[in-house]
Here is the input.
Amino acid sequence: MQALTHERILSEVDHLRLSNLVDRIVRATGTGKAAPDIRGVLDSALLVEPRRMDADVVTMYSHVVLSDQRSGQPMALTLCYPWDANPSAGFVSVLSPVGSSLLGLRIGAVAEWRTPVGEVGSAEVQAILFQPEAHGDYTM
Here is the structure.
């Protein structure tokens, strides 16, 4: 029998916080269609205890280096909650198409997203320069 593999791995803490955030958005907007990209990630991810999170997985507040699939250009960003987002400074909301496409991926995986104008973007996760769990922060 072949082992099941999961495309996404989330810490139980990240999963709980993001699920609560999506629920609050749904209640505030009155629509069940709030944050569909992140909802899909939350529904399909393998959950692990924060202390058992592998260091090669993108979690909340991870600082990552990506390689754009089209241009090969490297880019660095930090995955954050919407209230900390500042794209020009490299802080990308987990609720954005790019952010939700990165959450839970391992180094070497390719994230794909659709831009607001409908184009498809993609980038490979090249490195994780900082991951809270790998540095002993299990509550960030």
User: Anything to note?
Assistant: The chain is about 25% helix and 25% strand. The chain has a mean pLDDT of 90. Residues 12-29 form the longest helix (18 residues).
